[in-house]
Amino acid sequence: MLKSANRLKKRKEFAYLYNNGKAKHSNYLTLVYLPTKHRPLKIGFSISKKIGKAHTRNLIKRRLRAIVREQVPNLLDNYNAVFIAKTGIENLSFADLRKNVLYLLDNSELKKC
Q1: Rounded to whole angstroms, how far apart are CA atoms 104 and 34?
Q2: Residue 43, SS3 per DSSP
Q3: How much is the pTM?
Q4: Radius of gyration of the chain (CA)
Q5: In the chain, how long is the greatest CA-to-CA distance?
Q6: DSSP, residue by residue, 44-76
């Protein structure tokens, strides 16, 4: 589980990111991120009901959180980010999901040099 300080929770924060953020895409995920002022890194996850039933969506969220938790020390502060799942993600193995997340983080501005 991500620390509470690193979690996006409020609907307003998600909506602001969707409307104003920069997006990077892979086959199964979209990363939307935006710089903020004087705040710690905050990350959220959005998995639509199109992906599957609740247990499938929860499994994907748990996997994404585990992958991102390992990467938080390598990411810059002062950013908000949301990972948005696309259809087909439910068929990915953990290793393939990890590759998608790392690809998006490497191609975004979030990664420390």
Answers
A1: 14
A2: strand
A3: 0.92
A4: 13
A5: 39
A6: EEE--TTS-SHHHHHHHHHHHHHHHHHHGGGB-
**Which tokens in the block code for residue 37?**
């002022």
SS3 of residue 104 by DSSP? helix
Tokens 């990077």 -> residue: 24
Query: What CA–CA distance (Å, rounded) separates 79 from 91?
Result: 30
* C-alpha span between 36 and 48 (Å, rounded): 26
- Exposure string of 14-36, with b = 16+ CB inside 10 Å and e = fewer, is beebeeebeebebebbebbbbeb
Structure tokens given for 88: 């087909």
Mean pLDDT of all residues in 1-18: 89
User: And the tokens for 42?
Assistant: 């905050």
Read off the amino acid at residue 69: R
Q: What is the pLDDT of residues 47-92, one digit of tens each?
A: 999 999 999 999 999 999 999 999 999 999 999 999 999 999 999 9
| Strand boundaries in the chain, DSSP class E | 22-25, 29-35, 42-46, 79-85
